[in-house]
TrEMBL record:
Superkingdom of the organism of origin: Bacteria
UniProt record, GO biological process: glycerolipid catabolic process
InterPro entries assigned: AB_hydrolase, AB_hydrolase_1, AB_hydrolase_fold
Source species: Antribacter soli
GO function term, MF aspect, one: triacylglycerol lipase activity
Upper taxonomic lineage: Bacteria, Bacillati, Actinomycetota, Actinomycetes, Micrococcales
Domain AB hydrolase-1 as annotated: residue spans: 20-254
UniProt-recorded name of the protein: Alpha/beta fold hydrolase
Keyword Hydrolase among record annotations: yes
Entry keywords, A to Z: Hydrolase
Length: 276
């Protein structure tokens, strides 16, 4: 547990602090648990110091009452720098998924001296690219008719609710058993799982420039079957960031890259983070 910018965030590390640091940034409402232990270990075995953390209102980090966040989107966007400061790390490779990818982009624009490289997973440009980038039809339908809130006092009901939500976002090869395992871990670790929805209530944190200002080497990993941000989002992102490279993950949806992709993803991230 580390004090970070007026909050206390739960942080976990893998590997040796002397190695180049990779900071993993989760998506909206998501704690660190989506970054599989084995994926973190594989990156650490490749000579990286891997860091993951719980956002505010997720996992074991500082939690506010549901519906009453005490922070802004700007706080979420700056927390990664606070984590690095607390660990004594001046510069790190950022790997962000979805909202975490948006945070990583913003940091690369506003704090380029802290960002060694970017790996952007299942995310969308945070500044305008001049392209029409709609949400996929399946997700539009899900947002139009969201499931009712679970009974937050019943852990098993919450587990099923979280796992079912993951299924909506994931690709055609969704691993239901893994989804349940991660959901159970989230419920077991979380101070209050209902508080994660506070993320939807905060605003702010827009970067002060554009993606054309990004100087960090950038790798875009995007699922070909992403129902939230269809592949066009990844293509637009790679086109907007100077020198960015796009790797398409077949059969992958809006999710942390599943184990079936690690033979591609792990070497790509290790190669990318070795170049800067």
């Amino acid at each position: 547990m580390l004090p970070v910018r007026g909050a206390v965030l739960c942080v976990e590390t893998f590997g040796e602090p002397e190695d180049p640091a990779i900071l993993l940034i989760s998506g909206i409402t998501a704690p660190m648990d989506g970054w599989d232990d084995d994926l973190c270990a594989a990156l650490a075995d490749g000579g990286r110091y891997v860091i993951r953390y719980d956002h505010r209102d997720t996992g074991r980090s500082t939690t506010d009452p549901p519906g009453h966040p005490s922070y802004t989107g700007r706080d979420l966007a700056l927390d990664p720098l606070g984590v690095l400061d607390a660990l004594g790390i001046a510069r790190a490779h950022l790997v962000g998924i979805s909202m975490g990818g948006g945070i990583a982009q913003s940091l690369a624009i506003d704090h380029p001296d802290r960002v060694a490289s970017l790996t952007l997973v299942a995310t969308s440009p945070v500044t305008s690219t001049g392209r029409d980038l709609p949400i996929g039809p399946a997700m539009r339908a899900a947002f139009a008719d969201p499931p009712p809130a679970p009974d937050w006092s019943d852990p098993e009901v919450v587990v099923r609710h979280l796992a079912d939500g993951e299924r909506v976002y994931a690709g055609p090869g969704f691993d239901a058993e893994r989804g349940l395992t991660i959901a159970r871990r989230i419920v077991a670790r979380s101070v209050n799982p209902a508080a994660a929805a506070n993320h939807w209530l905060v605003s702010g944190g827009d970067p002060g420039g554009t993606l054309a200002d990004v100087v960090a080497p950038t790798l875009v990993l995007h699922g070909a079957a992403d129902p939230f941000f269809p592949l066009e989002h990844g293509q637009a992102l790679a086109a907007a960031v100077p020198g960015a490279r796009l790797v398409v993950l077949e059969g992958t949806g809006h999710q942390v890259p599943p184990r079936s992709t690690w033979d591609v993803v792990v070497p790509e991230i290790l190669r990318h983070t070795a170049l800067s």
